[in-house]
Design brief:
By secondary structure, this protein is α/β, with parallel strands linked by helices. It is built from 18 helices and 27 strands.
């Protein structure tokens, strides 16, 4: 069935129950009172920006938008881009696109104007829906972007070069548009993260989206009483498909703006959240704030919080050990995936397997996995090779890129580009990205292993290991280290700590700096390589 059937069902069965809450505890709600009045009220009377909609209203908004698109000439198979920050309109617009029979194309909100244009042309987008924060970027490319495309603005004070989402949708019916959609129809195009060159457009059918929703609900036992806290950007497959567990269960979700530790804990307490998906930096920030005494757990009612899970990047086992010290009753899970596999879950640890922290887990619901060598032959357990996955969430193709598709999908198997190994119990462990493997003096060095080791140091907040050119060795290992706030650390301390590593894995260069991460928490290693003189390696990646 198409994923839109879940929304129709929820609107019918639970019409008056809250589906979505938009919450920004760091912003005053000027719709409730004036700024002058806010200056006069007491701090304990402060009202954060908060909105909510029921399943009925969610569905009606999606139907209106779908009918508006159809009324403006959008046909089945056309493509509509969404360029917005997380807000209460995001998901109704996304489902409106799907209900019209069009293909939803979420854009990374970090794209600059030229990247927006590049992705719009690559995906052959027919409609661009954008929010207030992107007026300047859209205006800069308006003449080129608007040729043959409908530009729709979702916000107040619509710019002259676009049409208003609110005004357009209000004139159309809230009844279902009646477009026949099957799970074999195309549903969405997502873009690769773009951390290694230009992003690729990833085409999925509706069956991929439905698989993601059913899998997430099954993996985490999401039920009608749960409330999911969603913090990462909805354009990313991780955030959206973790939320789809709530869609499948017909339960509530909170879209939170803000990542400060006190913001997250306050939202969990006040909205009675039970499931929270965090990125590694946010979890580290919460633990560091607790260590320093900046926040205290007794100040928050967290009794309903049952599950904390992490994805989007390798998770240091030391972080989970620290987490369980503060939150001993939390279930924990980690999920591995990529946009080509409809986001997280093709491999997952499972809440019952916390004794295997460090592993990415076992094949997810309806998925198969294997590890192969350079010739495509399966390797023995304990040996390192490329992780391949197969299941109903595998992408159809890289849109308009047959060569890259052929390199990535072979006999139905998706070659992930991640190096992994399987232990004697059948659990998969991520070793590193294939492109990030450092070849030094003929030895393969896997940065993730060294990064996990470095993060055990009491003064290290974050670490990234990269390869830098070396005349003698080909590449040498360099560790970029971010120190915890308020601490000082000498290079000699790190070098002494690294004596605990095998000699060939010890970093030959130590660099103290902040670690750049993208919106989903992944370390931007090409940026680090450019910063520290490995342009040759970046050019190689961009050609790949």
């Amino acid at each position: 069935m198409p994923v839109t059937d879940f929304l129709d069902r929820n609107a019918e069965l639970y019409p008056d129950e809250i589906a979505l809450v938009e919450l920004n505890p760091e912003e005053k709600d000027t719709r409730r009172t004036t700024w002058k009045e806010y200056e006069l009220i007491q701090a304990d009377s402060f009202q954060p920006y908060r909105r909510e909609i029921t399943w009925r209203v969610f569905n009606e908004k999606a139907n209106r938008f779908a009918n508006m698109l159809i009324g403006r000439g959008v046909r089945k198979g056309d493509k509509a881009a969404i360029l917005m920050y997380n807000c209460l309109e995001w998901l109704p617009i996304y489902f409106g696109v799907l209900k019209s029979g069009a293909i939803a194309v979420p854009f990374n909100f970090r794209y600059d104007a030229e990247e927006i244009l590049y992705c719009a042309e690559l995906a052959e987008v027919d409609v661009v829906v954008f929010g207030p924060a992107f007026i300047g970027r859209i205006e800069a490319i308006c003449e080129r972007l608007s040729k043959g495309r409908l530009l729709i603005y979702a916000g107040d004070n619509c710019p002259s070069f676009a049409e208003s989402y609110h005004e357009l949708a209000a004139d159309y019916s809230s009844q279902a548009p009646g477009v026949e959609i099957t799970e074999e129809d195309y549903g969405a195009i997502y873009f690769s993260s773009g951390t290694t060159g230009f992003p690729k457009a990833i085409l999925h059918k509706h069956r991929s989206l439905t698989q993601a929703a059913e899998m997430e609900q099954k993996h985490h036992g999401t039920n009608r009483e749960d409330t999911f806290l969603c913090i990462p950007p909805l354009y990313h497959t991780g955030a959206k498909f973790h939320w789809m567990g709530s869609l499948a269960a017909g339960s509530r979700a909170v879209l939170l703006k803000g990542t400060k530790p006190e913001t997250i804990l306050s939202a969990v307490a006040k909205e009675h959240c039970t499931i929270v998906w965090l990125l590694v930096p946010w979890a580290q920030d919460i633990l560091d704030a607790l260590d320093r005494g900046d926040i205290k757990l007794q100040d928050y009612d967290l009794t309903g919080w049952r599950l904390m899970h992490i994805g989007a990047q390798p998770v240091p086992p030391s972080l989970i050990k620290r987490w369980k010290e503060y939150f001993p009753d939390h279930a924990y899970d980690t999920n591995y995936g990529l946009s080509e596999s409809t986001g997280p879950g093709c491999v997952h640890l499972g809440m019952e397997n916390i004794h295997k922290v460090g592993a990415i887990g076992v094949p997810g619901y309806r998925w198969m996995c294997k590890i192969v060598d350079e010739a495509g032959r399966e390797v023995s357990r304990g040996e390192v090779g490329e992780l391949c996955v197969k299941g109903p969430g595998v992408m159809t193709c890289y849109y308009r890129n047959e060569e890259a598709t052929a390199e990535t999908i072979k006999d139905g198997w998706l070659y992930t580009g991640d190096m992994a190994m399987q232990d004697e119990d059948g659990f998969y462990f991520l070793v590193d990205r294939k492109k990030d493997v450092i070849v030094s003096g003929g030895e393969n060095i896997y940065p993730v292993q060294i990064e996990d080791f470095l993060r055990r140091h009491d003064k290290v907040k974050d670490a990234a290991v990269i390869g830098l050119p070396d005349r003698r060795l080909g590449e040498k290992t360099a560790a970029v280290i971010e120190i915890k706030d308020g601490m000082e650390c000498a290079k000699e301390e790190i070098e002494e700590f690294c004596m605990g590593l095998p000699r060939y894995k010890r970093p030959r260069e130590i660099i103290f700096s902040e670690i750049p991460r993208n919106a989903t928490g992944k370390i931007e290693k090409p940026k680090l390589r450019r910063m520290y003189g490995a342009d040759r390696l970046v050019e190689k990646e961009n050609r790949a």
